[in-house]
Amino acid sequence: MQILHISAECFPAAKAGGLGDVVGALPKYLNRAGYGASVVIPKYATEWIQSADTEEVYRGEAPWHLERFPFSVERVLGPDIGFPLYVIDIADKFDRQGIYNDPWTGYPYWDEMERFFSFQIAAVEWVAHLEDKPSVIHTHDHHTALVPFLMTQCYRYRKLASIPTILTIHNGEYQGRYDRHHYTYLPAFDIESVGLLDWDGQLNALAAGIKCAWQVTTVSEGYLGELMNFCHGLEHLLRMEKQKMTGILNGIDVEVWNPETDPMIEKNYTIRSRKGGKRANKEALCREFGLDRSRPLFSFIGRLVGEKGADLLPELIESVRTGGVEANFLVLGTGERFLHHQLSELSGEYTGFFDARLEYNEALAHTIYAGSDFLLMPSRVEPCGLNQMYAMRYGTTPVVRAVGGLADTVIDLSRPGGYGFLFEEYSIAAAMESIQRAVDYYQRGEYLENMKRLMKLDFSWERSSGNYIELYSSLIKRSDTS
C-alpha cells in the first residue's frame, strides 16, 4: 500500500496551522506501521525548504488555460523527517516565504487561484507519469480538493480514475471560491461535467472535492456533525454525500511534543518529575515576560482571528483584570491587524499581568505549553484542535469552548474522569466563569494531581493512524473489485 498525500502544508517544511502538523505526522506513523506514505507540497521559499538537500526527480509541462507551464518535482534528501517529501517548483508562484499570506503585510496573496490550481495540475501530471502509481491519493482542504476532479473528469488524466481518492476537510470555513469561468484554466474535460465544479453559482473547490472524492473525512466526529448543520452553504451537499463521510480524530506526534525530551523547553520532565518540571518552565516563562509566577498563567496560542475566538481576548483580559481575578495572560500568534493593535495596547497597560508576542514562533510555543498552567481556546469553530492535545501532553489544563474536536477531546472536571474546563456559550461571561473556576481550582492546589491525569492521556497518531489504515484498505478493495 502506497499513500500519496497532496497538501499545501507539511511540518517542518511549511506550516501555517494544524494542517501542517497533521500532514507532517500521519505519514510518519503510517510508515512505521509498515505502509508506504509520502507527501508532495509546493516549493515555498521557507527557510527549511531553502536549506534542505534535494534532487530533481521529474521535469515536465502541464496544460494551463490555452497555454502550458513548466514545472519540476524535487525529492528532499535531508534532513530525514520520517517519510519521503517532494516539492513542486513552479516559476513565480511559490518562491515566497509566506504560504497563504504575505508575511510583510499579513494579507493573502492576490494570485491564490493561479498558485493552487497550477500546483494541483502539476501534481496530477507528475502522478500520471509515475511508473509506480500510488495505491491511494489523500488530499487536504480546498487547496488540493480539485485533484479528484482532475483525475476523474479531465481527458488527460482519465487513466488515474481507478486510483481511490480521499479528501480530508480540516477547515470548512475556507472553500476556495472563485468566479465560475475559472474552470477554463483546468485541463480539457467534458463540459457537461462542469456542474461538479459549481456550487451556488461559483467554482467551489471544496464542493468539487466532496462530489468527486471516493471518501471524505473530517478531523473529528464532532466536527462532522457540525458541518452537516452549518458549512457556509455546503451543508446540503454534505448531507447528500453523507454515506461517504466519516470523522477521524487527529492525533499528535508524541516525539515532537514530549516534555521528557523536548529541546525547546527550560527543563525536561516526566509524569514523576512533573511538579519540579512545570515550576522550572513557568519560572523561566514568567521571567521572560515579566509576569508574577505566583498567579496561575493562562495562555493562548494560535491565529488571531474570529474563528479561533481571538476577538474575545482583549475584552476578556480586561474583564479579568478589572474584576480582580488573580491570573496572568500570555498570547502568541498573528492575525487580524486590529487585534494586534488592541493586544499591543493592553500589554503596555497591563505590564506584569499580560503580554503578547505577535509572531509565529514554534520554539516559544513549546515553551508556553510547558510553562503555562492553563491553555485558553475560546473558539467559535474548532474542527479538531491540536493545541489542547499538545497542552495536555505537557500537563497544562485546557480551558476550552465545547465545540468540534474540543468537545471530543476534553472532559469537564465536573464530570467523572474529567480533566479540563469547558463552556458552551460563545461569550465573555461564559469564558469568565470557566476562568474563575480554573483559578479556584489552581488555588486549591488540585491542578498538580490533574497534571498526572493529563500526561497519561493518549492522543498519539498510533491510535488515529489505525483508523486511516482501515479506510485506505477498504478503498483499495473497492478499487480491485470495480
CATH fold naming of the largest domain: Rossmann fold
> With helices defined by DSSP (H or I, 4 residues minimum), what is the helix count?
16
CATH homologous superfamily of the largest domain, by name?
Answer: Glycogen Phosphorylase B
CATH class placement of the largest domain: Alpha Beta
| Overall pLDDT | 95
**Rg, Å, rounded:** 23 Å
Tell me the total number of β-strands: 18
What is the molecular shape?
Answer: globular
Question: Biggest sheet: strands, sense, closure?
Answer: 9 strands, mixed
Distance separating the two termini: 18 Å
Q: What is the number of independent domains?
A: 2
Strand order across the largest sheet: 3-4-5-2-1-6-7-11-12
Spans where pLDDT lies below 50 across 5 or more residues = none
Tell me the helix content: 25-40%
**Beta strand %:** 15-25%
Which structural class should the secondary elements be placed in? Answer: alpha/beta
What does this structure look like?
With 482 residues, the protein is of the alpha/beta class. The protein folds into two domains: 2-252 and 462-481, Glycogen Phosphorylase B (Rossmann fold, 3-Layer(aba) Sandwich); 274-458, Rossmann fold (3-Layer(aba) Sandwich), CATH 3.40.50.2000. Helices cover 37% and strands 19% of the residues. The chain is built from 16 helices and 18 strands. It has helices at 18-32, 47-51, 112-129, 147-153, 205-212, 221-229, 235-240, 274-289, 313-322, 337-349, 362-371, 387-393, 404-409, 428-443, 447-456, 461-481; strands at 2-6, 36-42, 53-64, 67-78, 85-89, 136-140, 165-169, 177-178, 198-199, 202-204, 215-218, 245-247, 297-301, 328-332, 354-357, 374-377, 397-401, 421-423. The strands form three sheets. A nine-stranded mixed beta sheet has the order 3-4-5-2-1-6-7-11-12, with helices on both faces. Strands 15-14-13-16-17-18 form a six-stranded parallel beta sheet, sandwiched between helices. Strands 8-10-9 form a three-stranded antiparallel beta sheet. Helix 1 packs across helix 16 (461-481) and helix 8 crosses helix 11. It is globular and about 65 Å long. It starts with a strand and ends with a helix. The mean pLDDT is 95.
